[in-house]
Amino acid sequence: MNAFSGTGIRLHAPAPGWSVDADVVVVGSGVAGLTAALRCEAAGLRTVVVTKARLDDGSTRWAQGGVAAALGDGDTPEQHLDDTLVAGVGLCDERAVRTLVTEGPGAVRRLIETGAHFDETDGELQLTREGGHHRRRIAHAGGDATGAEISRALVEAVRTRGIRTVENALVLDLLTDSEGRTAGVTLHVMGEGQHDGVGAVLAPAVVLATGGMGQVFSATTNPHVSTGDGVALALRAGAEVSDLEFVQFHPTVLFLGKGAEGQQPLVSEAVRGEGAHLVDADGVRFMVGQHELAELAPRDIVAKGITRRMLEQDTDHMYLDARHFGADMWEQRFPTILAACRAHGIDPVTEPIPIAPAAHYASGGVRTDLHGRTTIPGLYACGEVACTGVHGANRLASNSLLEGLVYAERIAADIQERAAAEGLHARVPVPVPQPATPEHPLMPPEARFTIQRVMTQGAGVLRSADSLAEAAAQLGRLHAEAASALAENGKTSEPGVDTWEATNLLCVARVLVAAARRREETRGCHWREDHADRDDLNWRRHIVVRLNPDRTLATHTTQTADFPATANPQEQ
């Protein structure tokens, strides 16, 4: 079999030993990926879902708070729009937000029709409130297990419909034809199922729904699999990414001790929405007076408030006090969080919860238009991997699941329209002989931990020119050392999941740091201590990055805050 390749940079990997054909391949099994797959399959398209672990192991199942939509009495899409634009601090694409809030209520109702069960009282949805929202508009399930319920319903629907799935598969690279149009993906199946090893799914439409990249930092709410694979794949293929500097740090993550690494337990914003208070060790509510909404200010403001108080008091955590809830409310409304706290020796019923900010959500990602189309014809992106323009500089709480729903449906509709208008013609990937020696180095597995610590120290909640320069230098050394070793002896780390993930993490880390160095202001969740003010004159605009063939970065800043077009629709 020929070795398939795109025209961009490839991960060093064995040649594909098997392939399957489809009309659409969806990479990812969270709310965005499974919604896109269900809609495509319903339209009669041959659909394959590829996921890195099991179908229900993505980031969606960890979502506690819920789905934001104008579903309550007196609420309107316009009010939801206003709250989203305020949270996004001048960088939201208003067209994208209007699409989200207008189509959102219908998308939630269709999710319910698919089988998701949300908490109700007397047949009406229970709605709660979270940071940045002026109304109760967050629908939740199982108290604080919304993501798990959504994941359950969508996975059950996918299995009931018999959609072909490839589990335990790490996507590697995009395949393209001789004209640069999407032709499928290569992937590595980790010893499970019908196929093992490296193979290919050949399809003229690829939907990236790979989730986030929180594992680029030492402490994150993201699962172990969130290593930025989709963003890295898109960059290697030549796609543009935007706004990657805007990484949201969730204000209230259970503090497990200084130096805790890996996935950390989240304490949902809904706990504050129900009346919990942020306090320091003396019990002082330090967010009062900092913002009209106090603890319910947008996440960037709360995370900064917590970090400032920690710096003032030379400590590494603050507290969330919800003792006044009582045992019944904790057990009925927040059973998941209660169990997580108690598992770590903390009882929220009788004591404040120690918390600290941790990496949570990437507001930027692969740049798309209102139909989820990227700058590569046939390549789509939705969910956290995408930058639709909805979130701007800071995502409004619980807009993420809604964005996944709405834009997945729009992607499926666009692919269906393409199929009806001209057919989804199979593309023939460009065959490229397997090189005798690797063209680009793979990072050793231990580089993952070095990257995480560099990013946490230099590009965390609080950034500066000096910290970012040091982070860039250290990441650059990692890249240069691996490249030099390859050039000198023709060898690199052995291909495998650990080395591919470490290589992806280095790729997204370098882009994130480059964008953060370029943005010399404080805006949303990008906090520069050396540029403490927001600068609309110079920086109310987007930073767009591409990866050059030699792996250097091509970075430019848009001239306005308008979200630039991805491509001529006819080219898609």
From TrEMBL:
Active site (UniProt): R299 (proton acceptor)
Function: Catalyzes the oxidation of L-aspartate to iminoaspartate, the first step in the de novo biosynthesis of NAD(+).
Location in or out of the cell: Cytoplasm
Pathway(s) annotated for this protein in UniProt: Cofactor biosynthesis; NAD(+) biosynthesis; iminoaspartate from L-aspartate (oxidase route): step 1/1
Domain Fumarate reductase/succinate dehydrogenase flavoprotein-like C-terminal: residue ranges: 450-554
Listed EC numbers: 1.4.3.16
Keyword Flavoprotein among record annotations: yes
PANTHER family per the UniProt record, alphabetical: L-ASPARTATE OXIDASE, L-ASPARTATE OXIDASE, CHLOROPLASTIC
NCBIfam families per the UniProt record, alphabetical: nadB, PRK07804.1
Key words of the record: FAD, Flavoprotein, Oxidoreductase, Pyridine nucleotide biosynthesis
Protein name in the entry: L-aspartate oxidase
Domain FAD-dependent oxidoreductase 2 FAD-binding, first and last residues per copy: 23-401
Top-level taxonomy: Bacteria, Bacillati, Actinomycetota, Actinomycetes, Kitasatosporales
Organism (species): Streptomyces xanthii
Any one Gene Ontology cellular component term annotated for this protein: cytoplasm
Catalyses which reaction(s): L-aspartate + O2 = iminosuccinate + H2O2
Required cofactor(s): FAD
Record Pfam families: FAD_binding_2 (PF00890), Succ_DH_flav_C (PF02910)
Location (main, coarse): cytoplasm
Catalytic class of the enzyme: oxidoreductase
One Gene Ontology molecular-function label: steroid dehydrogenase activity, acting on the CH-CH group of donors
